[in-house]
Structure of Oligosaccharide flippase family protein:
Amino acid sequence: MNKVHSSLSKLELLAVYFSYAIRYLYPLVLIPYYGRVLGSSGYGVVLAGLSLSSALWLLVNFGFSTIGGRDIVHTEVASERDTIFRDQFTARLLLSVPGAIVGGIAVCRSDIIANVPLAGFFVVAGGLLSAFNIGWYFTSTGRPRTNVLIEVMGLLLSLALIFTFIRKPADVDRAFPVIFTSSMIQTLVAYWLVRKEYTGFIAPMRAAVGLIKRSATIFIYSGTAVLVLDASTYILSLLAAAPEVSAFGLSERLVGAALSIMAPAAQILAPKVMYLVTRNPDRANLLARRTFAVFFVGAVAGVILTRLLSEWLIPLVFGPELGHAVPVLNIMIFILPLTVCTRVLGIYFLIPRKLERQLAWSGVISAVVNLMVAIPLASHWGATGMVYARILAEGSLLVMLIFGIWKAGLFREILGINEGFSLPARFGRWLE
């Protein structure tokens, strides 16, 4: 098992991004297929179900992955990692009970999902299963490429099953069993690969409850806000027709695919920043600033290109039935730069310094803003109204994070003012 090293391996980062390329191509292949085979309404059903599954995953995960990754990078012996692993599994198992109850109620409330036979069962089961993903364990023990390969295998398997079993609009009832089967195989492979690294699955109840308490603040930040945001498509399915759901869901998927480009960097860089922040904070800050600059420039470029090309590219690639998603996408794309800011500030600056309490109110306020404006706006303007609610929520999250950073006195660290480098010297360090 490899330890996380303090130096950045450019070759390692490049390898992860190369492997992740297929993950970014996945929605670009799958969305047009769903749109043309299932139609706008059928694809709306799939998007509503996936939104609910994602929300259940976040609920049961409860911030455990962040806490587990941070704990493991500071361990030295296998027995410590074994204890962390068992605590994590047991805590997830405990939260699966309320997760299943919430999921069952949500399925019954959504006519779009409930009207498809067995869809509700597989939507809930798939969300709970996703919470037991151990990608956090691979990355925090220095094996991000293993995690990426497992995910790529799962995506390829999912595509193969979908192309085989979903061939016409009436096959919409097969979508969720197929997705669940792929996820189950991916999970089994991951656990089999680390089977010699843990002595069991169940930890003492006190330890699991203690982990839940320690993760509560992280959940309030990353869970509360993101939970509400990820559930937006499901919430819209309660307020609007399936075509509106598909327009919003398509836009959300494309923006999500763009944001997922940050994921492999986080797998490599976040554990390194967590490791460096107590040993070499100047290096940790420099790494975080570079990450922000690269992704923010990319987000602005994404906004410009989307506004220029979406009107003819979306109908061409995803089919004329989804052409009504263009106006929605042209608004939602502005979430990109906002989310880059919030993710970098949270993941690379505040969480490594164990300032989760500074993050808690940010998540709560963002979620409250989203819920307060989503229902009236979506009821009146459908998908467009839900997009405006998302932008307002993300904006409020950014404002609260900036306030938390100011309160914690981190502005000088973030800007590198205390590091003693002149501007030419700081620019030169970018070329290292």
Notes: The radius of gyration is 21 Å.
